[in-house]
């Protein structure tokens, strides 16, 4: 049976979107917000008034957001510095909700906008109007853009399980292993190998200073794997350009760990 690499990766994304390794396993504790805690996280000199009614409103918005409570609360406490003229607690929460939903696999900006603003969604649906332009304009607002920019590191951590699963899937495909016991064709193996090289290569430029916890052994192993994959990709491309049949190209054969024994 022919194997489509896009379909293979879509299966992984679908599984993650259905709750595997994302919402249910987010390692973020609930904050149990109180008036005192919200006031503590306000920037020095803030004139924002926090009362029990404020806490009740925050909890109500989060309960209706369809987003992990711990994640919403963490983002709220992180971005309290954005509160000020024209930006109240509810506006900030809605912007946080929109950013989280719009960057969730399977969601679009339009869907995120309609979930975030259900009353506006009902109005647009009743009038037969398209919500995409409203979603696009909201996504370009200063508040949303600020949150989007500052949350990039958080998103990479949140969706790390997805990236790990994609890497494993590409590794299986590059070795000829498809879903349900099917065999990947040489073309799929080649594409998977090239995709894996692109996914795991070290960025040429770093715009954020972030101290990584990888030790020398881990870095060496990662670089070795990347170099091995790159060499195999170059070899396959060369064989194809020399006119060799795709069917003659065998499994990539990535070596993860080997042990050499000396002859007695």
Name a few traits of the molecule.
264 residues, mainly alpha, 2 domains, 13 helices, 58% helix
Task: Explain what the structure shows.
There is one protein chain. The chain has 264 residues and is mainly α. It has 2 domains: 1-22 and 160-203 and 213-257, no CATH class; 27-157, no CATH class. 58% of the residues lie in helices and 0% in strands. It has 13 helices and no strands. The chain has helices at residues 5-17, 35-41, 52-63, 69-78, 89-102, 109-116, 118-126, 132-139, 142-150, 152-158, 160-174, 186-200, 216-241. α1 (5-17) runs antiparallel to α11, α6 packs across α8 (132-139) and α12 packs antiparallel against α13. The longest helix is centred in the last third of the chain and has 26 residues, at 216-241. The radius of gyration is 24 Å and the shape is elongated. Residues 16-26 and 251-256 have low confidence and may be disordered.
Tally of domains: 2
Portion of residues in helices?
55-70%
* First-to-last CA distance: 46 Å
Q: Sketch the topology as an H/E string, one letter per element.
A: HHHHHHHHHHHHH
Number of strands: 0
Q: In angstroms, what is the radius of gyration? A: 24 Å
Query: Beta-sheet strand percentage?
Result: under 5%
- Given the structure, what is the number of helices? 13
Low-confidence stretches: 16-26, 251-256
Q: Structural class given helices, strands, pairing?
A: mainly alpha
Overall, the morphology is elongated
Largest sheet: none
Average pLDDT, rounded to a whole number, is 76
């Amino acid at each position: 049976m022919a194997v489509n690499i896009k379909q293979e990766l879509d299966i992984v994304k679908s599984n993650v979107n259905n709750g595997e390794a994302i919402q249910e396993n987010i390692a973020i504790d609930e904050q149990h917000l109180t008036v005192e805690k919200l006031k503590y996280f306000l920037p020095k000199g803030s004139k924002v008034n926090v009362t029990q009614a404020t806490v009740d409103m925050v909890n109500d918005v989060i309960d209706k957001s369809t987003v992990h409570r711990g994640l919403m609360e963490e983002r709220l406490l992180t971005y309290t510095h954005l509160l000020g003229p024209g930006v109240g607690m509810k506006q900030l929460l809605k912007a946080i909700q929109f950013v989280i939903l719009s960057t969730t696999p399977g969601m679009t900006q339009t869907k995120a906008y309609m979930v975030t603003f259900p009353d506006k969604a009902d109005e647009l649906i009743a009038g037969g109007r398209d919500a995409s332009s409203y979603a696009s304009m909201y996504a370009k607002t200063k508040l949303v853009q600020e949150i989007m920019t500052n949350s990039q590191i958080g998103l990479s951590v949140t969706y790390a399980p997805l990236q790990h699963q994609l890497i494993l899937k590409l590794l299986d495909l590059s070795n000829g292993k498809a879903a349900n016991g099917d065999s990947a064709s040489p073309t799929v193996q080649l594409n998977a190998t090239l995709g894996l090289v692109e996914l795991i290569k070290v960025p040429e430029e770093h715009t954020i200073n972030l101290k990584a916890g990888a030790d020398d052994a881990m870095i060496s192993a990662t670089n070795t794997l990347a170099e091995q994959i790159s060499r195999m990709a170059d070899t396959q491309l060369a064989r194809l350009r020399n006119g060799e049949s795709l069917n003659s190209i065998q499994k990539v054969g990535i070596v993860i760990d080997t042990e050499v024994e000396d002859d007695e």
